[in-house]
Amino acid sequence: MGLRLKSQLVFLCFSLMLVSLGALSYFHITLSSQDNLMRSDRDGRRAALQAFQQIQLFVQASDNPDDLASCIASRKSAALVDSLSKTPDLIQFDIFLPDGGRLLSSGTAAVDDLAFQQALFWVQAHHESYNEIWGYQNGTVQPLVSVAPFYRGQVVHHSYHALYNGAGQLSGLVHLAVRLPKAPLRINFILLGYLTIATIFLVSSVLAIYLWAEFALNRPLRGLNSSLQQLNALDPSGHKSDALPQPNELSEAAMALNRVTLDLVKYQQELQQKTNHLERLNEELEEKVADKTLQIREFFSLITHDLRVPLAAVSGYADLIENPRSGQLSEKQRQYVRSIQVANRDAQELVRNMLETMKYEFSQPAMQLEEFDAGELLGEIAEQLKIVNKPVELMLDPGQDLRVWGDRARIGRVFSNLMANALHHAGQVKVEMSAEARQVAVSVSDQGPGIAPEDLPHLFEKFKGSSTGLGLGLYIVQRILQDHGQAVSVESQIGQGTRFRFNLARMEKEKNS
């Protein structure tokens, strides 16, 4: 064969097949050995159970079944020995007292004192027979049957069964050793079968590798070489590749592909130039986006600042008009003034929410952490909301310690947004606080129309959390609580109101512990 890589490919494929065959054989032989061990255990248990039943019948039929020693000492025990000696493959049986004293013994298999003690402990602890399989080969004994090639030893199933008296107490232990003649034969069949399969697999693999190398690799390469020689003849410059030592099909194909390689290098250079141009355009675009972002941020800052000044002036003038020193007002005039204050407060709240949202969108706002009284802060927020002339119910226990750790101004924003939202939609709000060991639990609820289930997943998203306004209040609530390491949950049913729940950390050292 002209292909010089054939021997290396054959060696590589052959090595991979050997590794795969070894791994598969190992796992299959292991599984087959386990299956053989379980079958042998079932055979041994079946034969041992038959012999044990004979011993049980003998003890129960004796004159004094509760005294095991007197039963065995009777002349009828010889009949028991004769009967058990006729049991197929039973090579040893022993009857012991619980203290280890041997009352009756017959056979050729030795009994290990340690094995007896283990069996006694097992029977007393689990109230069932103790079973194990031993392999005897070349004067050695192994707890498990070996899977060495062509096993020529003897496999014996040992079992220990408990005898109980009429009071249910352990009166003796019966040891039975059953020879398993089929177990070594099964082991040899397993190994012989896998050896035959491995031989067939290796011979077939070698033949398949040879056919693959000749018909699936060499022939297509010769055809490819012929086609590439025709392609090389189309080179008008007459450029020839450097001659390779010891030319073969692959070296000739490499020389014929020289022009194709040069073209690929040319295309790669052109592609690199275009890539560099795109990178420059991307950098310019990023700069423009950054400039626009800065302009938008400055625009929002100016807008909110310009809005806050006149709104504050409106609030101040409304307070002056309502002041008795400015003159008496009619009830209708007072109602107009309160309407102006409510509308002005809503506008100020909207401006504050816009400022807060801008801070979260363009940068991470700094936290001013301190310890403060959450109940006192809640009272201040409720006092500010009294101008809406709607019920605000605070459920606070005066004896509770409601000190928490956090940014007081931002937590006040959470209270204000949730309470204002409830007053707007339901006309009333109820706030509950309860002090716990490590935190203060807060609940803000109303008896309003409720929220549809399909709207709950989008409640805290920007521009989606409210049917009126910009929908920024609940978004800001969630972001502020996230900065404090807390989460806010909502429960709502149509026609039954809405409840928001969240927690506040008690102390800084407790929060970090």
Task: Pick out its properties.
513 residues, alpha+beta, Beta-Lactamase, 3 domains, six-stranded antiparallel sheet, 17% strand, flat, disordered C terminus
Summarize the structure.
This protein has 513 residues and is of the alpha+beta class. The protein has helices at 6-60, 68-73, 77-85, 113-126, 182-232, 249-256, 258-322, 331-362, 374-384, 408-426, 473-483, 508-512, and strands at 90-96, 102-107, 130-137, 140-142, 154-164, 170-179, 369-373, 392-395, 403-407, 429-435, 439-446, 489-493, 497-505. The protein has three domains: 6-201, PAS domain (Beta-Lactamase, 2-Layer Sandwich), CATH 3.30.450; 257-365; 367-512, Histidine kinase-like ATPase, C-terminal domain (Heat Shock Protein 90, 2-Layer Sandwich).
